[in-house]
Amino acid sequence: MLAPLLDALFPRRCLGCGRRAWPFCDACLPAIAVPSSPWCERCGRPLEVPVARCRDCPPEDIAWARSAYLYEGPIRRALMGLKFGGIRSAAAALSPAMATALDASRVPGRPPVAVTWVPLGKRRKRARGYDQAQVLAERVAGTLDLPCVRLIARVVETPPQARRNALDRARALRGAFRPARTAPAAVILVDDVLTTGATAAQCARALRAGGAEEVGLLTAARSLGGPVPARCYTSPGLQPGSVVARGNHLR
Ligand SMILES: [Zn+2]
Ligand SMILES: [Zn+2]
């Protein structure tokens, strides 16, 4: 009863441009890009031909990776809103497609039994009011009917990474995470964006130290660092995340 009233008082805005539409307006929809095959089997990076692994594959501690969207245009702005703008509802808009991406691609390896996330440092979580990766993980776990468990503790609060080179990043991240408790054998690690996978790999390492044998990475978006294949743009009228897999293979 409350939701329609709240919507009337505070109409929800397009996550891409702020127009009155939710989650994305008709102008933003065609600019949303989704990874599709042919791709790298291991990390889901769209390519011209299918390959078993690629140059942009995340580090070895991650068994496989999948992303719901490509980090472009409206999706980029939606994730910036989730991360820095306090727009927590963006997680509700983006997470259904994360579960669908997992189901549709039939990732290699064993069926995951729990979902966890790349934890934010305490200070930043306090400043933001929530941990965006945790919010995404909880929603994805709900859709997949898996438990969402805090398995990783952040011991070192690393400074923002934007201005660091790869070597500095690796150095700053070393020892930043440790297992928070014993991990089950197969775990899905959730984060907002996959770029190089350096941070996620450190988390995967902590999970493996905690007993996990296989860690798969599921993110809302994938940053390609290169041109996006034209086929990845969704057709107008297709609401991303509107098709949620039911009775999927993970059960
Ligand atoms: Zn829009
Ligand atoms: Zn790859």
Question: Explain this structure to me?
Answer:
It is a single chain. This protein has 251 residues and is of the alpha/beta class. It has a domain at 57-224: Rossmann fold (3-Layer(aba) Sandwich). It has helices at residues 2-9, 73-84, 89-105, 122-128, 132-144, 166-173, 198-209; strands spanning 64-70, 114-117, 152-154, 177-179, 186-194, 214-222. Strand 5, helix 7 and strand 6 form a beta-alpha-beta unit. The longest helix is centred in the middle third of the chain and has 17 residues, at 89-105. It is globular and about 50 Å long. It starts with a helix and ends in a 29-residue tail after the last strand. One zinc ion is lined by residues 40, 42-43, 45, 53-54, 56-57.
What is the structure about, briefly put?
The chain has helices at residues 2-9, 73-84, 89-105, 122-128, 132-144, 166-173, 198-209; strands at residues 64-70, 114-117, 152-154, 177-179, 186-194, 214-222. By secondary structure, it is α/β, with parallel strands linked by helices.
CATH class of the domain at 57-224: Alpha Beta
Catalogue the ligands. zinc ion
From the alpha carbons, calculate the radius of gyration and give it in angstroms: 18 Å
Shape: globular
Structural class category: alpha/beta
Helix tally? 7
Largest sheet: 4 strands, parallel
Secondary structure: helix percent: 25-40%
